[in-house]
Amino acid sequence: MAITAVVDSEGNVENSSKTYKSSTNSNKNTNDSLDKSQFLNLLVAEMKYQDPLEPQANSDYVAQLATFSQVESMQNMQLSYQQAQGSNLVGKPVIMKTESSSGETGYVCGRVDYMLTEEGKVYLSINGSMYDIDDLDTVLEEEYYQNTVVNSGSNNT
Predict the structure, then answer these.
(1) Which residues contact 134 (CB under 8 A, 6 or more apart)?
(2) Is residue 139 assigned to a domain?
(3) How far apart are CA 35 and CA 33, in angstroms?
(4) What share of the chain is helix, strand, coil (3-state, %, to 5)?
């Protein structure tokens, strides 16, 4: 039988009588992903506080590390894919989905000037503003863009 407890970032076991806030109340800018150092801290805490009468096998730790490595590799592959996609979009007309501070959905149409990767996210520069590649709505055909957007004199839809 294993003992489970909440462990803080320094490897200390927290008191189980604490109350925790709902994740819906947390700041939306926090990074939900588990990085390598956090994973290793969690692994060390797990080893430190395991039941001495029923220790976990070394192969279990290796399996956890392998699983984490697979997830990290998939995240790196996704970033590489988004970078390649962003590079391929440079010079092409696109429509980006936007959301105003009031929550209303809008769209911005324009040609991708350049692509930028910052803190593991890919951004596209359109009409002098940066947009997350995840907000890409449509890649337009050049002929359609020329006939509908450029000829009408509008860059926003």
Answers:
(1) none
(2) yes
(3) 6
(4) 40, 25, 40
pLDDT below 50 — which residues of the chain?
1-5, 16-30, 157
Cα gap 150→146, rounded to integer Å: 5
- Determine the Cα–Cα distance for residues 111 and 107; give it in Å rounded to an integer: 13
State the Cα–Cα distance between residues 133 and 125, nearest whole angstrom: 10
Residue 124 token pair: 């596209």
- Whole-number Å distance between alpha carbons of 121 and 78: 10
User: Same domain, yes or no, for 145 and 97?
Assistant: yes
pTM of the model as a whole: 0.57
Domain that holds residue 104: 90-150
Predicted pLDDT at 90: 94
